Amino acid sequence: MGDYEAGMGAMSTPATPGTPTPLMPSSLRVDSMSYDRKSMPRCKCLPVDAPTWGAPHTCLTDFAVPDISLTRKLGAEFVGTFILIFGATAAPIVNQKYAGSETLIGNAACAGLAVMIVILSTGHISGAHLNPSLTIAFAALRHFPWVQVPAYIAAQVSASICASFALKGVFHPFMSGGVTVPSVGNGQAFALEFLITFNLLFVVTAVATDTRAVGELAGIAVGATVMLNILVAGPSTGASMNPARSLGPAIAAGNYKSIWIYIVAPTLGAVSGATTYSLIRQDEPPLHIQTVRTFGRH
């Protein structure tokens, strides 16, 4: 995505679940995850001689619009992933400690709501990846620069570890409830994790890179997909869909059973899901202004 292609973009927080009216039409959104940012206009102009707004004019001065630094993006990614892992992992731990009080629906709701609120609050800064598999898939499809992938993954995994040890300290000795361990055979677990991550990235790629998708409701779409996947695969695999979701709790609890499944299957599923949407999407007609959708409001 080095070139700003119409309809392509990066994940940013959608005005998801019942958001206020965007400040600009969804067709005029700038891709927060693109790395060839110099190809887009980067200034705000103060008109000095136009009789009406929008008429031809000269500029008194131009004010550069600063790019978000990588440090800020990584900070947002760390905090967002921390919130996600804390919420998604705490629910099954509470379920274990209090004899099933959360139930499967509660576990699914916690994870889905965590995804939704993080997309809303940090998507416009970092794209709200929150998931190494998603970061790799977007880089593979040129929606995200490969050079930033290691830093994003480091932020996501370190946030997961921090959140997991925080939960271990708060809920000890019930940390094992938050570890994703398959209750079915490895083959079935691999297939389930592949398929549910495929579903997730198909939806994410649609709402994050296609200007005609749900747009400002993207947070709801992604959160609902996470909930659906957990309701389907939660009892069998824990429905991780995210290597960071599994690695942090595994390290905190010292339980690495079948951990390879939760690293390999989601990554393959993510690349497959994102690629599938990219193959079936319809090309948009050329516009005078090339634009892309993001999860952010501009």
Question: How would you characterize the overall build of this protein?
Answer:
The structure is a single chain. The chain is mostly helical. It has one domain (70-280): Glycerol uptake facilitator protein, CATH 1.20.1080.10. It has helices spanning 70-97, 103-126, 132-140, 149-171, 186-209, 218-237, 243-253, 261-280, and strands at 43-47, 59-64. It has a two-stranded antiparallel sheet. α3 runs antiparallel to α4 (149-171) and α3 (132-140) packs parallel to α8.
N-to-C CA distance: 20 Å
Q: Please name the CATH architecture.
A: Up-down Bundle
Beta-strand proportion = under 5%
CATH topology: Glycerol uptake facilitator protein
Give the overall form. Answer: globular
Radius of gyration: 20 Å
Give, in order, the helices and strands. EEHHHHHHHH
Query: Largest sheet, if any?
Result: 2 strands, antiparallel
- CATH homologous superfamily annotation: Glycerol uptake facilitator protein
**CATH C-level class:** Mainly Alpha
Q: Determine the fraction of residues in helical runs and give it as a percent range.
A: 40-55%
Domain tally: 1
Subcellular location: Membrane
Family: Belongs to the MIP/aquaporin (TC 1.A.8) family. NIP (TC 1.A.8.12) subfamily.
Transmembrane segments: 74-93, 105-125, 146-167, 187-208, 220-239, 259-280
Main location: membrane
